[in-house]
């Protein structure tokens, strides 16, 4: 009896390990589309969001098994946009915030269907504003500069190509919630 149990347990273990595949692998292409909560540029009294923080990122898996079979590395691009408006004291200001960047992330799968990752973004932020009061346009200006951000996130795959996505960090928003599509 014991001689039969050992081969059966071995076959079950082998089947389970072969069916548990990483959710992000070398060669995978993933598109994230997110809606941000917590604008990172202009918040507070008298400010309102004219366009909520929106983000899109594209990532390619470039290396599997960095330190064990559950790890991988991805690189890609990032685009974020938000618009804010300040109204008070008879004047109004409108602000636009754009971030364009490159990202790299270390992925690690702790449980099936959940792709968890942490990464770094290096990018360029473009901020513009316009001031007006009634029928008068007082002027406009733009500013830009380099930016960086650390982030952590996760994608839960409902099937092989569609996932819910959440990222926490400093980018166009402090928290991004959205969808991910494996292409």
Strand order of the largest sheet: 1-2-3-4-5-6-7-8
Strand tally is 8
CATH topology: Porin
Stretches where pLDDT is under 50 for at least 5 consecutive residues are 8-20
Mean pLDDT: 79
Q: C-alpha Rg, in Å?
A: 22 Å
Largest sheet, described in full?
8 strands, antiparallel, barrel
Tell me the name of the CATH class.
Mainly Beta
Termini separation (Å)? 49 Å
Shape: elongated
Report the portion of residues in β strands. Answer: over 45%
Portion of residues in helices?
under 10%
CATH architecture: Beta Barrel
- H/E element string? HEEEEEEEE
| Count of helix runs | 1
- Summed up, the domain count is 1
Structural class: mainly beta
In short:
10% of the residues lie in helices and 68% in strands. By secondary structure, it is mainly β.
Structural notes for this entry:
- With 183 residues, the protein is mainly beta.
- An 8-stranded antiparallel barrel has the order 1-2-3-4-5-6-7-8.
- It has one domain: Porin (Beta Barrel), CATH 2.40.160.
- The radius of gyration is 22 Å and the shape is elongated.
- It contains 1 helix and 8 strands; from the N terminus they run H-E-E-E-E-E-E-E-E.
Please supply descriptive tags for the structure shown above.
Outer membrane protein beta-barrel domain-containing protein; 1 helix; 68% strand; Porin; signal
Topology, pairings included?
Elements: H1 2-19, E1 29-39, E2 47-64, E3 71-88, E4 91-108, E5 114-133, E6 136-157, E7 162-169, E8 173-182
Antiparallel strand pairs: 1-2, 1-8, 2-3, 3-4, 4-5, 5-6, 6-7, 7-8
